[in-house]
Amino acid sequence: MLRTSLRAARVPTLARAYATELSQSSASGVKLASFADSAPTSSISVLVKAGTRYETAPGLAAVLKSAVFKGTNKRSAIRLVRETEMLGGVLSASLTREHLVLTAEFLKGDEGFFAEVLGDAVTQAKFAAHEYNEEVIPQVASEYEQSVSNPAVYALDIAHQLAFRAGLGNSLFASPHSAVSYSAATSFANQSFSSPSNFAVLSTGVDAGALGSLVSDFFVPSSSAAAASSPAAAYYGGELRTPATGHSHSHLDHLLIAFKGTAASEVDLAVLRFLLGGESSVKWSAGASPLAKLSSGTSCAQAFNFGYSDAGLFGIFVSAPTAGVEALAQGSVAALKQVAQGASADAVKQAVLKAKFAAASAYETRAGKLDLLASHLSASGSAPSLEELFAKFDKVTVDSVTKAAQAALKSKPTTVAIGNTHQLPYADSLGL
Description:
alpha+beta, six-stranded mixed β-sheet, five-stranded mixed β-sheet, 11 strands, 18% strand, disordered N terminus
């Protein structure tokens, strides 16, 4: 009956057309990508090669993220706040392992002012010592405390350190155990902002030609230096176990199991992540993916995949009461090994569709575009269109997903256990 209803509901397939148009170019050595849309608001984001993989000492990137927008040679911090609010705009800064991202969101037509503000932030930066000591240091200390109180965030940060050690393994947070001096922070900022090749600009709702002119006007550093560089990422793997203490303690324990991944340009592991799943596509219902079937009550397992410009981290995150972690982790590893023995064609087809939906949904939001395209734009100078991403997903096969799972399992596992370490399983007890 259901099959008959589904057949009746089918309509002839039409060629898909997407309303978002992507234009790409460069101006004064800065890579540009502009999305044309009809929304009443626009945005400009500056991607700077000042993520944690480029820092020369622990905590520099986190400190720099908190120090931008504190004032420039043209505007004091209070003037910047007042002028931004007078125009109804929003300025924000975020940090990834590869980029410092500065974003301005504003009403369409105000791109001239906000392009100037962003340009000043990276070419006219002024780091006052009193602001550094009174505002920046307390802010990064607070962010560190928040990170260690969130088991998922804390486990992922530790997992990257175990997996890559340096570079991509550098923490996203500035630990109070490794003090960052004012002179080291300003030196890192000057190094990061001194070359146009360190910048890439992504905009929505701004004319591509106008964006190029604005970048040429405001994003050329007064001095030029070599572009930021980082050694190629190397994967190592490892194991760490830590008890849950203080305000981070809950009735659930956590186990992260990760393996060597691939660069963001490769999509087989992205499909494998959706094949294993863990979440439900229907609210208040159990999912049908292998990991979703293992979950019950407060116990859950979910696959993840992080792709960077030249490496990646793939794995499964398990949360459950102490007594249930080992069985859930064993079932999760078994599900991955089952795929490595041969995935079903229907499961791969479904996972490809989910991966396409996730990519299309990301294209609908500014944050999603940044997450999806940042590594591509910075590494190769071009951001793939949605059609190009879909074409990559269409090339994924049962064989390629099976081989991706096999390759992951051949790597040394990275495991992080948070909670009752006396009872939580070790990697070798899970057959890894």
